[in-house]
Design goal:
CATH architecture of the largest domain: Orthogonal Bundle
Number of domains: 2
Helix content: over 70%
Distance between the termini: 61 Å
CATH topology of the largest domain: Tetracycline Repressor, domain 2
Length: about 190
């Protein structure tokens, strides 16, 4: 039988509570209670609530596998974008509690925002580099940064739509939507011969 270590218990409890109540509404005392540890133990492991959030975010959201995905692309626009898009949606759905937590925060917190936006900002850089290389290969002509932002915004919108549709009990296959979107996006940005 595998036991969960203390740090993991605290991280798991924090994500549950942050997603239910929002970052600002949760206290370290509540997190410690949920994790079954003392508040002193929580601080011994994480020093502060913000540090705890950053560690939880890194563990649950940012995935080194995502960087590796960009190293193994085929340089076929539609195929590559399908892989990137599917992986991005996997990460979004696995971490929907963290994303929903953000929308529950009523107060702006620059430190919190910087942590939360670390993954999309990193992904934008990876996408921009990919689109720049595709432009160098003569596949596309558009601005790489604009394409990266459009790609991320549309995919986040698709993810959020599916979160809401699920609550409204519409039945649609997200993979079909992703494939259709990628086909249209790739066709729209590909250079005409």
């Amino acid at each position: 039988m595998c036991s969960v270590n203390t740090e993991d218990k605290i991280l798991n409890a924090s994500i549950i509570l942050f997603s239910q109540k929002g970052y600002n509404a949760v206290t370290t005392k509540e997190i410690a209670k949920e994790a079954g540890v003392s508040e002193m133990t929580l601080f011994r492991h994480f020093e502060s609530k913000h540090n705890l959030f950053e560690k939880a975010f890194d563990k649950f959201v940012f995935s080194p596998k995502f960087k590796a995905l960009f190293e193994g692309l085929e340089w076929d626009l539609e195929s590559d974008l399908n892989k990137i898009c599917s992986s991005y949606h996997d990460i979004l759905f696995k971490n929907q509690n963290i994303i929903l937590m953000y929308f529950k925060n009523e107060e702006l917190n620059p430190e919190f925002d910087a942590t939360l936006f670390k993954f999309p900002n990193e992904l934008k850089k990876l996408l921009s580099r990919y689109f720049e290389k595709m432009r160098e290969r003569g596949v596309i002509q558009e601005n790489p940064d604009s394409l990266a932002i459009s790609f991320l915004a549309t995919n986040f919108g698709l993810f959020f739509t599916f979160l809401m549709m699920n609550k409204l009990t519409f039945e649609t296959d997200i993979q079909v939507c992703i494939s259709n979107y990628i086909r249209i996006f790739a066709k729209g940005i590909t250079c005409s011969m």
